[in-house]
Amino acid sequence: MILERLPVGVYSANCYIIGCEKTGEAAVVDPGGDVDVILEKIEEFGLKVKYIILTHGHGDHIGGIIELKEKTNAKVLIHADDEYMLKDSDLNLSSKMSIKNIEINPDDVLKDGDIIEIGKYKAYIIHTPGHTKGSICIKLENNILTGDTLFAGSIGRTDLPGGSHDSIIKSIKERLLIYDDDVKIFPGHGPATTIGIEKITNPFIV
């Protein structure tokens, strides 16, 4: 499996490319900007983008979505509870960020337990409300892409519309920390970590 991290956009949000070497199918998670960089890496791997998956609806994670969809014709997927944000630049905060206003309709909406097939690999959708109502994490084999829910040594902010501190702590403890210590965490900002490391070092959840 190809799992490539690309910090993109003015906020250096982590964009991830998930690819299947056998079929050439790929998904791009959180294209926050720098679409030329994303497409260059896609071409380097010889992949075709089938899905654009959003972990949540904030501007720093969706800044490149319109351009990427235009150039790949990939299907845009977001959790149903964040769909409203994607359609309104004020609600997704892109109008308040140093990026162009983003307003787009998703091709489909996600729910907890959905499975997205990317070639021979399966991406399992985990609904983790807290940072936003529709925040999701994506489990791929022994890896979890956590968006802005869980970071190395920190958690996502909850002071924005739709955020809830109690909900994010509940999501992390009941939906993420249940996995084995060696499961790798790939967050929406910053470096990778593991479930085990966060269990014993993250001050927000220990």
Automatic annotation (TrEMBL):
According to the UniProt entry, its GO molecular function terms are: hydrolase activity; metal ion binding
UniProt-listed CDD domains: metallo-hydrolase-like_MBL-fold
Under the heading SMART domains, the entry gives:
Lactamase_B
Judging by the UniProt lineage, the source's domain of life is: Bacteria
Q: Which cofactor does it need?
A: Zn(2+)
- Entry keyword set: Hydrolase, Metal-binding, Zinc
Instruction: Say yes or no: keyword Hydrolase present.
Output: yes
Where do the Metallo-beta-lactamase domain residues begin and end?
A: 12-189
Q: Which PANTHER family match?
A: HYDROXYACYLGLUTATHIONE HYDROLASE GLOC
Question: What name is this protein filed under?
Answer: Beta-lactamase
Organism, as annotated: Caloranaerobacter azorensis H53214
